[in-house]
Amino acid sequence: MIKSQLTISFLAAACLTISACGTTESTAPNPDYETYISPGDIFKHLTFKDIHGQPIDLANAPGKKLVIFFATWCSDSQRMFNALNASPLVTDHNLTIVAIGREETSESLAQFAVDYNVSFPLITDEQRNVYSQYANKGVPRLILLDENNRVVNTLIGETENIIEQVKWN
């Protein structure tokens, strides 16, 4: 009986994880995913504190910005971070990258930074206060900003080559 309950619990948790993350391999975004910001809009959140209490000021950061919404448990987010680390974006001095952990704590993000060799600021969004102003569901989400903090593009990172799609022109 206990083994059966454990099996059912495990399967239910796995299904919820897969559906919440959005692990489909389709290149078309899920039609249920809504994005509340469009190219040309000004990104509203320009100041943050990272998981170490350090201020992050996108308003005065030179160059382009890449804002990533993600979840540490999401396989698509994990794949995207691996691809990002293998790309030249992480060493581009004309690019500021910040990653916002949806429903994540400082502790979970600190462990994720170690596990995925994250070299840029991680920001908690435990109650989805920031995320919910830009989207209804789906991670990872990438928002590309120009030098003036205007949205250039938004991407939903459910495909294996999402980092290759990060382009400002």
UniProtKB/TrEMBL annotation:
UniProt keyword annotation of Ligase present: no
Keywords (A to Z) from UniProt: Signal
Domain Alkyl hydroperoxide reductase subunit C/ Thiol specific antioxidant, chain residue ranges per copy: 40-152
Protein name: Redoxin domain-containing protein
CDD domains linked to this entry: TlpA_like_family
Keyword Isomerase: no
Signal peptide stretch: 1-20
Listed SUPFAM superfamilies: Thioredoxin-like
Family annotation (InterPro entries): AhpC/TSA, Thioredoxin-like_sf, Thioredoxin_ResA/DsbE_sf
